[in-house]
């Protein structure tokens, strides 16, 4: 992934140069802007902003700029003059004033990958309509025992598949887990079906497009990602066609059935919302699970507390009795672990917004038409908000005030609708993981922000069953 960085430089020099000259040099900046630097001619400061760094840190760019200019500063990023906010209160204000003072504004290169009806891109009434459809899936899944049962069965199956291994590539494994779970509940596709394997391969290609050269040249990762998205769309569209032909679309079916039964979306909108939920339920949940496992490997006290919580739940149940919603509600420390991993690991480092009018807040001035980047990472590591902010400490969440200082799932009308579902999924998986395995990470393996989280070695783990097997275990790197 890091090898793509020189290509990103070339892309930015070619694609953003003229835009920079027109917007920065041909137009007088207001005198009361935040302090900062517009960076190099042509590419601004985008390269420094995107330079890979540990995701459990602010990175040199933000540290140096905050030290020099303060927690809110001006820059030139992604082809536009930009106000960068590392201030928690301003971040909250921006997210809460969607469509009033600010609007979502992602780089056009992402539009080609996500599609024009993606929830990340659309705004206004279209966003509300599609988000409500997505939220209906979350609500329906959370209230149905079969979702919890499926999570648990898949978790147990994965634990069993590791019994003869002493090493696993956890990030790849957990991506298969989360995608298979989503495919089952959205489209009734079973993990063992060839179509599930094909979709996983396309999604892996699809995700590489987010951190690749954003110019469509055949054979490049970006072009491959656009094509992968087209294949995924065609796959879902074909499933829709078959459902309609067979006159399915019953309320008691999977998520696609429910959408088709309502008839409120076009086929293109249906394809987009299905892919969005697959992407969110697969990529972001898998990344969070990997971060949790990484942090727990370096936090023996937290592991011990988790074991106590999950042993108490297991001891209260009959042998083989499945977990329930009531069990999840008892997993208080587990949820604290999830939140703390979000704070420390930063699955989403920042989001893109644009000012719809001149905005003044806390003495900061943001001109109309300027991009605004609320940077969650910086607020998560702000020592004025969090004691020992770089320390992974789930116990800090026993103080209810902590939740007001962190935005792990975003905020405002774009607050992640699947947050509760993801927590249930992760909690049930952790239940079986901590009761069945111990693990260690490699010294040179850690999460990188690029800006999306990757692991240097795919989070390669040395694992050992709680009841250690006597026979020698073969390598099983996946």
TrEMBL record:
Catalytic activity reads: campesterol + reduced [NADPH--hemoprotein reductase] + O2 = (22S)-22-hydroxycampesterol + oxidized [NADPH--hemoprotein reductase] + H2O + H(+)
State if Heme is listed as a keyword: yes
Which InterPro entries did the record assign?
Cyt_P450 (IPR001128), Cyt_P450_CS (IPR017972), Cyt_P450_E_grp-I (IPR002401), Cyt_P450_sf (IPR036396)
Membrane-spanning intervals of the chain:
none
Task: State its cofactor.
Answer: heme
The highest taxon in the source lineage is Eukaryota
Please name the GO terms that the record assigns under molecular function.
heme binding; iron ion binding; monooxygenase activity; oxidoreductase activity, acting on paired donors, with incorporation or reduction of molecular oxygen
GO cellular component annotations of the record: membrane
Q: Which residues form a coiled coil?
A: none
* Cellular location(s): Membrane
Checking PROSITE patterns in the record gives:
CYTOCHROME_P450
Pathway(s) it belongs to: Steroid biosynthesis; Hormone biosynthesis; Plant hormone biosynthesis; brassinosteroid biosynthesis
Provide the residue positions that the database annotates as binding heme: 416
> What keywords appear on the UniProt entry?
Heme, Iron, Membrane, Metal-binding, Monooxygenase, Oxidoreductase, Signal, Transmembrane, Transmembrane helix
Q: What is its main location?
A: membrane
The membrane topology term of the UniProt record is: Single-pass membrane protein
* Extent of the signal sequence: 1-26
* Annotated family: Belongs to the cytochrome P450 family.
**Which protein is depicted?**
Cytochrome P450 724B1
Tell me the organism: Theobroma cacao (Cacao)
What taxonomic ancestry is recorded?
Answer: Eukaryota, Viridiplantae, Streptophyta, Embryophyta, Tracheophyta
């Amino acid at each position: 992934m890091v090898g793509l960085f020189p290509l990103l430089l070339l892309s930015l020099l070619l694609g953003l140069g003229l835009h920079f000259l027109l917007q920065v040099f041909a137009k007088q900046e207001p005198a009361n802007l935040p302090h900062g630097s517009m960076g190099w001619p042509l590419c601004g400061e985008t390269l420094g902003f995107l330079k890979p760094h540990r995701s459990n840190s602010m990175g040199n760019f933000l540290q140096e700029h905050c030290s020099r200019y303060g927690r809110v500063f001006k820059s030139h990023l992604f082809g536009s003059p930009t106000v960068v906010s590392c201030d928690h209160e301003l971040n909250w204000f921006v997210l809460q004033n969607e469509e009033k003072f600010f609007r979502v504004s992602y780089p056009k290169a992402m539009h080609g990958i996500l599609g024009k009806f993606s929830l990340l891109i659309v705004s206004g009434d279209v966003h509300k309509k599609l988000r409500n459809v997505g939220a209906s899936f979350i609500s329906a899944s959370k209230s149905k025992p079969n979702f919890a049962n499926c999570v648990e069965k898949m978790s147990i199956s994965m634990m069993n598949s590791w019994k003869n291994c002493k090493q696993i590539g956890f990030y790849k494994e957990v991506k298969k887990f989360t995608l298979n779970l989503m495919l089952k509940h959205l489209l009734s596709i079973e993990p063992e079906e060839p179509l599930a394997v094909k979709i996983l391969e396309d999604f892996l290609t699809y995700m590489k497009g987010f951190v690749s050269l954003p110019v469509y040249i055949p054979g490049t990762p970006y072009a491959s990602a656009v094509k992968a998205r087209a294949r995924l769309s065609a796959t879902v569209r074909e499933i829709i066609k078959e459902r309609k032909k067979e006159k399915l679309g019953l309320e008691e079916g999977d998520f696609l059935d429910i959408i088709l039964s309502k008839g409120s979306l076009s086929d293109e909108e249906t394809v987009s919302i299905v892919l969005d939920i697959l992407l969110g339920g697969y990529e972001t949940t898998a990344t969070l699970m990997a971060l949790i496992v990484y942090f727990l490997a370096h936090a023996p006290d937290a592991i011990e507390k988790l074991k106590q919580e999950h042993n108490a739940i297991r001891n209260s149940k009959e042998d083989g009795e499945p977990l329930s919603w009531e069990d999840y509600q008892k997993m208080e420390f587990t949820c604290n672990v999830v939140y703390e991993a979000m704070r420390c690991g930063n699955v989403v480092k920042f989001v893109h917004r644009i000012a719809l009018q001149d905005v003044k807040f806390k003495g900061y001035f943001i001109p109309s038409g300027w991009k605004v980047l609320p940077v969650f990472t910086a607020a998560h590591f702000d020592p004025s908000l969090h004691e020992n902010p770089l320390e992974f400490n789930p116990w800090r969440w026993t103080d209810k005030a902590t939740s007001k200082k962190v935005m792990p799932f975003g905020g405002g009308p774009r607050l992640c609708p699947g947050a509760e579902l993801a927590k249930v999924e992760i909690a049930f998986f952790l239940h079986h993981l901590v009761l069945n395995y111990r693990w260690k990470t490699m010294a040179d393996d850690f999460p990188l922000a690029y800006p999306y989280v990757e692991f240097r070695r795919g989070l390669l783990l040395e694992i050992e069953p709680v009841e250690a097997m006597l026979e020698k275990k073969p390598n099983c790197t996946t």
